[in-house]
Amino acid sequence: GWVHGDLKPANVLLMADGSARLADFNMAAELEGTHAYTPAFSTPDYTPPELLWSEIGERGRRIRPSADVWAFGVLAHLVLTGSFPLPGGTPTARRDAAVAYARGGHELRLSPELPPGWREIVRACLTRTHADRIGTDALLRRVTGTTEGASGGAGFSPRTRARPRRRVLAALAAGLLTLAALGYGVARWAGDGREPAAGPRPGGTGSVAAASYGAAELRTDRDVPPAYRLLIVETAHDCDREEVSPALIAAMLKVESDFDPDLADPARDEYGIARWTPSVLRWWMNEDGTPGETVPQPPFPPAESVPAMGRYLCWIAPRLDAGLPGDRSVLVAVAYRTSYRKVNDAGGVPPKYRDYADRVAHHLKEYTPRRGK
Question: CATH classification of 2-182, choosing from 3.60.21.10, 1.10.510.10, 1.25.40.10, 3.40.630.30?
Fold first, then answer.
């Protein structure tokens, strides 16, 4: 009757007796019918595609037990092979791949190191839609059966230490079905193996973690929605250019849409949180730099729109002429709204876009943390 909400390797504790225990229940929530409500924050690599663009309500994000099942599939693949099942060298890239996979544009790249039994389990966990995902009871039966049926073979060499890993995964699968019995969480473990200290009640600090993510680069006391902080900060990090900072991306999203993921402006042919024109988004939607095969159709989820914005800004930045007057970050933003050629030709911000530049500059200053304090 519970959803953990943040299943990942860091939240699995391996005990001295070989058992596995779940930790960190700050995101955990009790089911209310078919759903639970958790803070709007999660770890991208273990978040199912349907939650990457889910609506965030006053009570947080609606989440199903199938979200834990997806996370278990990713974790199992990582533990048994050392690699993720979706392509990409960064969490942002793999998140983009998850969106493309859900839309039919990517396939799972399961490692050949997975034995047949585990290959089928992982595939059953990582379906494109939650409705097709294996249920928790069936998952436990299949994991237990595969583990008990593996007598040193099943595609593993005894040198790979596969048997202990399979036992860990079987214990973890059982743990997902007994969240209520495990209590509300584990805040920390003492080094002498004593029992865990009592943790906070679910839903208490998960939202705090979301609201404080990237605090050194993006102020936490302004109106940037916690649900988008991780996305904004990691998108800026993927660019690795000083002009393209988390504060700039947040300022631009504020000016473009006021952080509205459902924005639709048919008169301008612009949609989503970053106000993308579909024919332009096509060229920036793929992490590998290749254009989409077809023009995408709205709605555009933030997990697709924001990284695409970051890739476009990163492409624009080095194409602006050196020595242009004004803040380079603001010039990059203006070039996003018009083009880098028009900014270069105007020798700075074109008159038509001065109001836009002023608004971006205002929020850029507002969202940038103060230094030296």
Answer: 1.10.510.10
